[in-house]
Amino acid sequence: MSPQKALADAERKPYWLDRSIAPEPLPPLTGDATADLAVVGGGFTGLWTALMSKERDPSLDVVLLEGRAVGWAASGRNGGFCAASLTHGLGNGQDRWPAEIATLERLGRENLDEIESTLARYGVDCSYERTGELRVATEEWQLPGLDQEVSGAASLGVRLERLDREQVRAEVDSPTYLGGVWDRQGVAMVDPARLAWGLRDVCVRLGVRVFEHTPVRSLHDDGLVLELDTPKGRVRAGRVALGTGAFPPLLRRLRHFLVPVYDYVLMTEPVPDDLLAEIGWRGRQGVGDSANRFHYYRLTDDNRILWGGYDAVYHNGGLVRQEYDQRDATFEKLATHFFETFPQLHGLRFTHRWGGIIDTCSRFSAFFGTAYGSRLAYAAGYTGLGVGATRFGANVMLDLLQGRVTERTDLHMVRHKPVPFPPEPVRSGVIQLTRWAIARADEHEGRRNAWLRTLDAFGVGFDS
Ligand SMILES: Cc1cc2nc3c(=O)[nH]c(=O)nc-3n(C[C@H](O)[C@H](O)[C@H](O)COP(=O)(O)OP(=O)(O)OC[C@H]3O[C@@H](n4cnc5c(N)ncnc54)[C@H](O)[C@@H]3O)c2cc1C
After folding, report:
1. Would you give the end-to-end CA distance of the chain in angstroms?
2. In 10 A of CB 157, how many CB atoms?
3. E strands along 16-95, which residues?
4. Is pTM beyond 0.85 here?
């Protein structure tokens, strides 16, 4: 069956959100309200911020304002790889923050452990499975990178297993694999929409007032409190936390650091047991390949395969539009790559195809800050690895809003911002040139041209 045929009946919406278990949205804000803390955004950043603010101080009056439905954006439509890494992978963290990477890795693992214990404590069922992740090489030039990852982790006391061709194929059998690394502890798989919905329920149980379909149109300071205007009401809050991801930010200065990048995903029908047995995959690990343009893939709890990544698309001008959630050229490319990776699955069909926006920044990992005399805090820029790291970002925002100096707020990573993107139209030109150079590097055994080497020298780049 051709990739086009395998895609023919695929629904054009996110599988995770397209289920009868989706909860009814909570009513929007009408009229005026006051709060000690107003959280803007109902993705993982906002949900964890609201939840943990009540855990820190149950007497705090907290509202959460979400423009559409909780979890409808990146948080409910992603791959569900919940990683310990706070730095978009160890290599990126080691390059940027060599002096504090040991601390960042430890804090990241503690963060993942705390996610796991929080879900257990509140009974959030989101098919959480701490399977780890296999990172596989599909071309010879990628193998040294795997060795580097293992030795880099070992220098921090973290054990990753280096698998040769036979060993990696004994785990997940693709003829394209040449070797792999198994990070057994550093990544869990989650059902992202059920995680978002579960966190929403916990927030409500803890007393957070959650308002959906309540976009915040503007923010201003009346001297004493911050005022948030929404279509049918206004919140006056002592403190504000912004968790608005890749969307146009309420604080203009964030526009310099963020670009919305579209990432695309396919979901298959459930794989019959006999077919799945041909691949193995008994460990149910998440899998990622190692080119600059990488795929990520995993099993769901009913043994569908989610298959995403590769193209990271920036629309000139940083435009965000609903129609961009669909991109047939990318879906066909992804389907072709899927059957090249798993020829055993020839004949399998895709049931869903979708895209979503990632909040990319030039250092590929979150940045943080405050405004209005430290009465507002923000965290953004997770660049495609925020399912786990958003909880860390939420903790940073709460530390900043409480004026607490902690191990987190002392980090260089927290105290310093990424290099800003240039303004448009130069921004579009630079990003498209970089995307082209990255694609060329993958076609030429990873060799980086003069442009990419220049960006590397300045510690900036483009990723998903
Ligand atoms: C296709 C795809 C696959 C991905 N796969 C992975 C993965 O496997 N692992 C991983 O770690 N990360 C992955 N990511 C990234 C991850 O999903 C994000 O890093 C994370 O969900 C970011 O959460 P957030 O809360 O910061 O942003 P979002 O989930 O985007 O939430 C922001 C929310 O703010 C709301 N909002 C914005 N402006 C306003 C306003 N003015 N008023 C009110 N509300 C507002 C929006 O409606 C939205 O709900 C993926 C992302 C995509 C798109």
Report:
1. 30
2. 9
3. 31-40, 62-65, 81-83
4. yes
